[in-house]
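Whiteboard transcription, Tuesday session. T.W. wrote the structure tokens on the left side:
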């Protein structure tokens, strides 16, 4: 399995901008992606996904924008933490209720 590379946001923006600027010089968007990806040093599929996400962020394409996606991840993380806290409180409540019952019987 290949090691996953991380590209800076500047490289991503530059690659997407290059594609949009030079797309008319190629017969298809995929041909432009192949050419620019080789120049940038990323895989064509990586560049394609950057372009799709950029189009989504601009409202050209449907789907979750980057900010919506980040907000969703944050809410999911918060939901997990709250569920964990509720479970702890539920167990503590049951423990103390049982302790109270045991104390009254003595």
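and on the right, the sequence the group agreed on:
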């Amino acid at each position: 399995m290949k090691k996953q590379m991380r590209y800076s946001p500047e490289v991503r923006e530059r690659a997407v901008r290059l594609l949009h600027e030079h797309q008319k010089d190629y017969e298809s968007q995929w041909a432009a992606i192949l050419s620019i990806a080789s120049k940038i040093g990323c895989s064509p599929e990586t560049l394609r996904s950057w372009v799709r996400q950029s189009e989504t962020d601009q409202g050209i394409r449907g789907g979750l924008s980057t900010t919506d996606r980040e907000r969703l991840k944050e809410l999911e993380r918060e939901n997990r933490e709250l569920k964990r806290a509720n479970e702890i409180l539920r167990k503590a409540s049951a423990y103390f209720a049982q302790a109270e019952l045991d104390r009254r019987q003595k």
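Someone added at the bottom: The helical segments are 9-22, 29-40, 44-58, 66-105.
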